[in-house]
Amino acid sequence: MPITPTPPDVPADAGRAVEDPALLRTFLLGLAEGMTASAESVDRIRADVMQIARAYGLEDVDLVVLPTIAFVQTGRGDTARGLMRSVQATFRFDQIAEMGRLLRLARAAEISPADGIRRLNEIGAMPPTRHWFMRTLGHAILTAGLALLLAPSWQAAVVGFGLGALIGVAKLVRSQTLTLVLPILASFVCALIVFLLAPYVELGDPLRVLIAPLATFLPGALLTTGVRELAAGQMVAGTSRLGASLVQLGLLAFGILTAGTLVGVGNEEYLPLDASATLPWWVAGIGLALYGLGNYLHFAAPGRSYGWVLLALVVAYGAQQLGTLAFGPSVSGLIGALAVTPLVLWIEDLRRGAVPSQMIFLPAFWVLVPGASGLIGVTEGAVAATAGIGDFTAALVTVMSISLGVLIGSSLYRFVRRSAEELSEFHIDLPTVLAPSDEPMMTRIADATTTRASRRREETEGRADDPASG
Contact 35/42 with Cβ under 8 angstroms? Predict the structure, then answer.
């Protein structure tokens, strides 16, 4: 998927490229489109692109970014020129990582706009760094690990592995029509299989098993990014993302409801079998490791990201469990998000081994949302005969609490980072007498006294010789 077309007469030398406003404008638009495809918030996109424009010596520039549109303008009045493109692509983790490297070069103006445009096209068209079988296997492992966290039984892990492999194969098909209906189709097929197996296989709560293969359809990026944009004053972008995320949740619920109606879930004859053997607590660690490995394989993430993703998962899951014990399940998502967000932003700001925040936070979000009771509550409400507005409210509170945790955590991190930068720049010059020196202290004091007396005597003689001083 090319980001921006490279003009046929693009100059190769960096000097002429920087002086060409049209070329630089195309490069800036491509960066905005690439960041949008990386699920970055519009306020962050605008700030980064404006900073890059100044790094290349372009001050008179304006940028408008929406979730599906990017517009950049250079110049004013009669000299104003603008470019606009629609954004339809969604980057994988390997593409997001390459986009992060390009942005670091662009912020320091270490790459010419011509080479930057070529690199953008390469990122947009790059094939997955992992074979389709490994990506499918990764989705199956991801689902099995999440099933161990939500419904800790080996039967649930096996069923989750099979459903995850099925969804992973469906995601390989490149079809715009299938992409639109895949959430409904996936939720319907998975719910149908789980509801039919539940009376005969010891799955425990079948609804918790059902959530695992559908986790990657949860609109994590839309919800959290939308709330951040609303807090930053980006009303159009934030509202549109929140609306799209609610539609996505509604599609998932509709597929589950259809399957539940077809099977007859909610009737008294429906008696799922509880798991007879309870797994020990340390199985959650295995589930987190499998879940992180599945994300690493399925989304073709760079090798260095697995350790950071696993660390973020442990922090998010641990903080959520503590929040459940201390405050209850409805607030546990907020505690988990509040703990993991500063960690993710700190990892992104590392000079060496930095990983884009989207690659770390999205897996953590998919752990937080199913782990909170709201989404499970709305799923139970969708298939039960007593479904009501309370289930939807519980789900909305869960999602908003997680988004609020992200917002508070990011604000605290930025405040602490800004304060640390101000402290590092704080400096007081010591008097010459107290400055480090090999000379004895008394000698430096005597020299300073002599110098001060000589300067005072010269000033007095100068005023005496100046007729205007009288």
Answer: no
CA distance 141 to 153: 15
The answer on pLDDT for 267 being more than 60 is no
Nearest to 344 by CA among 369, 374, 319, 315: 315
**Phi, psi (rounded to 5 degrees) for 264:** 95, 25
Both tokens of residue 329? 């399940």
109: left (phi over 0), alpha (psi -120 to 50) or beta: left
- 148-199: per-residue pLDDT in tens? 888 778 888 899 899 999 999 988 887 777 777 888 899 899 989 988 888 8
Over the stretch 377-436, which tens digit does the pLDDT of each residue have? 656 655 554 555 555 666 667 777 777 888 788 888 888 877 776 666 655 555 554 555
Contacts of 42 (CB under 8 A, 6+ apart): 36, 65, 66, 67, 229, 234, 237
